[in-house]
TrEMBL record:
Keywords: ATP-binding, Cell membrane, Membrane, Metal-binding, Nucleotide-binding, Translocase, Transmembrane, Transmembrane helix. It comes from Ammonicoccus fulvus. SUPFAM superfamilies: Calcium ATPase, transduction domain A, Calcium ATPase, transmembrane domain M, HAD-like. This is Cation-translocating P-type ATPase. It comes from the Bacteria.
């Protein structure tokens, strides 16, 4: 009984009952010579399928909206009045089937949202008074310790405070390979443990989780209208009344009421109305599955026009974590019997008392090589803008730029060699620091921010997807910026920029006629992100502000997601145009067929409903995960390595 009740209230009940009545009508016509029962069954079929349509049309009229339902209602009622019962039943039956199929396939295009909701965890195991208690996921409090066992869903956003394990984060970042988690790592609600045992301190629960924010964003984005869709809505508002007037005029001129009613049916703009929203829903859903959140249809359309991409350097093209790349021993150092390890050790001992950010990679490199750096220097004197001077075992050690040499009155005989080495390293995109002992330059150490291995591949894919210009906007010095740009394949480098100058650079690109996407960290780059046509936030997982405010939020800190987002936007807009073309060609062909004969009301409705389904199926192609033609295995570039042994040089 429950199954019968569910079917009667399901989407297929109306077309199913109407279809059975049509079959009963056709069967009775063969059994009995009297057509009465056949007509009764056929009228009943038209009523069953037509009443919901008439009700919708009436409600729409009350809201002063003339829509497709009104056209079908007028045509069906007119056919009944004219005793064309088969036409009335066929039109309403086919319309009901079309509506049921549309609902089913539209639900399919929203599958990304349904899948996100499905991964939301229902329960959580928490530690309370040293006991494991299973509760609803929504009842977990911030700061509570949650236990995540093998195979379980993570119920909250949090930080691992104990244990190790592997987490499948595909529902958040789109990454199919499980990620190893240890103490201090972040985990997100809705992800799944594939091994291990984790103790997680909850930092976000309920609506405050990353998953909840993603669901909210996708829900809003799929309902947001693109500019083309808004135009189509306005077009339909005029088109439908115009068709009614045209049918009325045609009927009066030809005195053929059936012809006028047929025109009403075949001119329904159903496929045209649905052509854009179904593509947008599918495109945004595909993006959500891949960890690409797009704010809405308007931003999807704009993203398809992107032909210039502006990128920050530090933390975007590079990892934002400098490493030691070179140790050069100068003539004075060799004269004093020093080698590269000793130059590095002296630099590390001097920097041990420094707060400068470039001190860390020197100290880490010394630690990697097992060089002893005992305690702090006897005396440390930071020299703002130049470097640091320290006293070690009674000897004066200076580490800094060339300007520091002048202050330390380093012997002039060393200056030409120092300048040569410094210029060479700077040209390679590294930051050189001279090491001097007691007024003699003994060596040069250099650090560089490691370029991401996929940066060059990202630029190549952006160009392949139609982006004409990739620009680096950075506050770093020009030699370093140009060296990084050359390795990555950047088209234009603008260095030494303050945040407001980055904004001016984006405005300049827009004045040149480009549609600009800006990718940055959202802090220093905030003005430029806001000014760009599309602002892109990378690594937005766990960052509520980025998810809510960015035009495009890339959940994973993966550069290759950027060209993937641009490609998806272009494919979605192309799909929208295909659907519009299918709808217009179908309506035009049917109208030609009606006016010049050959197309009946039932045939017209059948072709119309088929065109709607073709449009929806075409949009559903976007849901398939595909490998773009320009994608390949990322190419590794010649970037600085953290392994100091491979990059340390000694010159004689």
């Amino acid at each position: 009984m429950n199954k019968v009740h569910a079917w009667l209230h399901g989407r297929w009940a109306v077309p199913g009952i109407s279809g059975l009545l049509i079959l009963a009508s056709l069967a009775s016509s063969r059994i009995w010579t009297n057509q009465l029962w056949g007509d009764i069954f056929m009228i009943a079929a038209a009523v069953v399928a037509g009443v919901p349509v008439v009700i919708k049309a009436f409600n729409a009229l009350r809201a002063k909206v003339i829509g497709i339902d009104l056209l079908v209602s007028v045509a069906a009622i007119g056919a009944v009045i004219l005793a064309n019962y088969w036409e009335a039943a066929a039109v309403t039956f086919l319309f009901a089937i079309g509506h049921a199929l549309e609902t089913a396939t539209l639900n399919k295009t929203r599958s990304a949202l349904a899948e996100l909701i499905a991964v939301a965890p229902d329960t959580a195991i928490v530690l309370r008074e040293n006991e494991q208690v299973e509760i609803d996921a929504g009842e977990v409090g911030n700061g509570e310790t949650v236990l995540v066992k093998n195979g379980a869903k993570v119920p909250v956003d949090g930080v691992v405070i104990g244990g190790t394990g592997a987490i499948d984060e595909a529902s958040i970042t789109g990454e199919s390979i499980p990620v190893e988690k240890v103490t201090g790592d972040k985990v997100y609600a809705g992800t799944v443990s594939t091994g291990g045992f984790l103790q997680v301190q909850a930092t976000g629960v309920g609506a405050d989780t990353t998953l909840a924010r993603i669901i909210h964003r996708v829900e809003e984005a799929q309902d947001a209208k693109a500019k083309t869709q808004k135009f189509m809505d306005r077009f339909s508002a005029w088109y439908t009344p115009a068709i009614i007037v045209l049918a009325l005029v045609l009927g009066l001129v030809t005195r053929d009421v059936v012809l006028a009613l047929t025109l009403l049916v075949i001119a329904c703009p159903g496929a045209l109305v649905i052509s854009i929203p179904v593509s947008i829903v599918a495109g945004i859903g595909r993006g959500a599955k891949d960890g690409i959140l797009i704010k809405g249809g308007e931003f999807l359309e704009t993203s398809a026009k992107i032909d210039a991409v502006a990128l920050d350097k530090t933390g975007t093209l590079t990892e934002g974590r400098p490493v030691l790349t070179d140790v050069v021993v100068l003539d004075a150092g060799i004269d004093q019997g020093l080698d590269s390890d000793e130059v590095l050790r002296l630099a590390a001992r001097a920097e041990a008392g420094s707060e400068h950010p470039l001190a860390r990679p020197i100290l880490e490199a010394a630690a990697e090589k097992g060089l002893a750096v005992p305690g702090l220097p006897e005396h440390t004197e930071p020299v703002p803008g130049k470097g640091i001077v320290a006293t070690l075992d009674g000897r004066r050690i200076a580490v800094g730029n060339v300007a520091l040499l002048e202050q330390e009155q380093v012997a002039e005989t060393d200056n030409s060699r120092v300048a040569e080495v410094v210029a060479e390293l700077a040209a390679l995109g590294r930051t050189p620091m001279v090491v001097a002992r007691d007024g003699r330059a003994i060596g040069v150490v250099a650090v560089a921010d490691k370029i991401r291995t996929d940066a060059a591949e990202m630029v190549r894919r952006l160009h392949a997807s139609g982006v004409k210009k990739v620009v680096m906007l950075t506050g770093d010095i020009e030699p370093v910026a140009k060296a990084v740009g050359a390795q990555v394949g950047i088209d234009e480098v603008r260095a030494g920029l303050l945040p407001e100058q980055k904004l001016e650079a984006v405005e300049d690109l827009k004045r040149q006629g480009y549609t600009v996407a800006m990718v940055g960290d959202g802090v220093n780059d905030a003005p430029a992100l806001a000014t760009a046509d599309i602002g892109v936030a990378m690594g937005a997982a766990g960052t509520g502000v980025a998810i809510e405010t960015a035009d495009i939020a890339l959940m994973k800190d993966d550069l290759l997601k950027l060209p993937q987002a641009v490609s998806l936007a272009k494919r979605t807009v192309a799909n929208m145009r295909q659907n519009i073309a299918i709808a217009l060609i179908t309506v035009g062909t049917l109208m030609f067929g009606v006016i010049f004969g050959g197309v009946t009301m039932a045939i017209g409705m059948l072709v119309h409903e088929l065109s709607v389904l073709v449009v929806i199926v075409n949009a559903m192609r976007l849901l398939r995960r595909r490998r773009d033609r320009f994608e390949s295995t990322p190419v590794r570039t010649g970037t600085p390595s953290a392994a100091v042994d491979d990059r340390v040089r000694q010159t004689v």
